[in-house]
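Format notes (please read before filing issues)

Several people have asked whether sequences and structure tokens are stored in separate files. They are not. Every record keeps both together, in the order shown below: the sequence lines, then the token lines. Line labels are part of the format and must not be stripped during preprocessing.
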Amino acid sequence: MKGGSENEKNIDTFWDYSFEFDKCLDRKCQACNRRMDTLKKMVTGQIAGVFLILVTLMACLIIFWRILVLKPLLVVSNIARKLSDLDLTVTIKTLRRDEVGKMLSAINEMLLEFRKTIKEVKSKGEQLAVTSGQMTENISTIASASEEISVNVRNVSDTTEQMSQNVNTVAGAIGEMSSSINEVGRHRLPK
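Then the structure lines:
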């Protein structure tokens, strides 16, 4: 019976390792999910911040123009209307060399930078989407591998249990044979 308790100890140890592996795998999956959530929040915050800064800047410029420059107000108003619709195709052409012309040129440069920023944000968003897709695939692969490992662990457990039963059966048979040999030996011995 000493061998039986040792087998049970081995099976218990095996299950303990299997349980620890499952816990470790769960922690890794949770860490991946937290990292992905953090990246999503960072990108969303950056996009909102850039958008808020640009909208605030545009509002300040429009107020400044209304106060100081009345003549090109219609041009600036039309540009602002297009920008509020996020029409980035707006281009400003001016021949003026005064402050208004400089301001319109500056707006044009700002639009160019704004277009570049939007392209960069879009590119980063696409990269995030690709990375997110890859992480989702990796998590799916890990989950699939975990299921496969779990099935293999169950198979090993079933095989171990069957081997234990077989050992017990053989031990019982050996015991019976030993008893039979002893019995035959007692009958054969001269009295």
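For reference, the curators noted about this record: Helices lie at 2-68, 73-84, 99-188. The mean pLDDT is 84.
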